[in-house]
Amino acid sequence: MVLVDSSAWIEALRRRGRLEVRLAVEGLLDAYQAQWCTPVRLEVLGGARKEERRRLGVHFSVIPYRRCEEDDWERAISLAWTLRDDGLSVPWLDVVVAAIALHDGNRLYAIDKHFEEIAARTGLQLYQPGYGGTFAP
Q1: What is the C-alpha R_g of the chain?
Q2: What is this structure's pTM?
């Protein structure tokens, strides 16, 4: 399973979104490997235009969903402290997303560069689009 961050979902859903991101998300969906979680839900659906909300709600209703539990928030706090102590400041919801992926042992697909910095400091595994999800362009 690959936890897809809001940065990738939003880019893939744009009419003129980057082709490589659109293909990567489509490939994960086709392989039934895409997953989303509570913070991603807030960022994607919370920012949706009024005319898109219903369509997006239906679209996302069939994708595996990972609810955020109290323990996830505690792990996110611990991760935030670790990152901050190492000099890295990251948006809070992205810390929660990374903490969920780390805990569940899932790869994370994101196009925000700070996830690469998180991965360099932790055991976070990033999904690289391509054959078998291992090819880095």
Answers
A1: 15
A2: 0.93
